[in-house]
Design a protein that fits this description.
mainly alpha
Length: 112
Amino acid sequence: MVGRRRSEKHRRRAAGYRQGLITAITVFLGFSLAFLRFWAFEAPGEWTRRSTIVAVGLVVAILLEIYSLYRALRIEDDTVQEYRKTVLWFIASAVVMLFGLFIAAVVLSGAL
């Protein structure tokens, strides 16, 4: 019917959101890859169980960021429902990365 509103599932979001989300994900992904390079190849000291846990956490965060980027680049992400899921995936990747950075700071400082 012409006069009926689209359902929440099929409603499209306003233009410009996709570009902003993709930019945020790629900036975060670039930082994550650079930090992983530092942590894996340039940080002083020997590998320990704690530093390995940090590296695994960083890799998990990077994989979540890549999945978020994949979702953001899909055509289906133009719908509000899919966009919200993509944002949640990206937030999850950011939380994992921040947790990894916190643990890395503790390990690097020698506090543990």
